[in-house]
Amino acid sequence: MALASSSGPSTERAWWRDAVVYQVYLRSFADADGDGIGDLDGLRQHLDYLVQLGVDGIWLNPCYPSPQKDHGYDVADYRDIAPEYGDLATFDALTADAHARGLKVLMDLVPNHCSSEHPWFRAAVAAGPGSPERARFIFRDGRGDDGATPPNNWSSIFGGPAWTRIVEPDGTPGQWYLHLFDAAQPDFDWTHPDVIGMFDDVLRFWFDRGVDGFRIDVAAALYKHPGLPDWTGGHYNEYTHNRPQVHEVYRRWRRIADSYAPERELTFVGEIWVPGVADLAAYLRPDELHQAFYFDLLKQPWNGQLFRSSIDGALTGIGSTGATITWTLANHDVHRTVTRYGIVRADEPHESLDRNLAFIRPRGEVDTALGERRSRAACLLLLALPGSQYLYQGEELGLPEVLDLPDQVRQDPTWFRSEGLDPGRDGSRVPLPWTAQAPSFGFSPTQVTAEPWLPQPQWFVKYAASEQLKDADSTLALHRRALRVRRDLFSTVDRAVTWIDVPGRDDVLAFRRDSVTCVVVFGDTPLRPPAEWGSIVLCSAPVHQGQLAGNSAAWLHTP
Ligand code: NOJ
Question: Which ligand 1 atom is nearest residue 181's CA?
Answer without folding.
Answer: 10
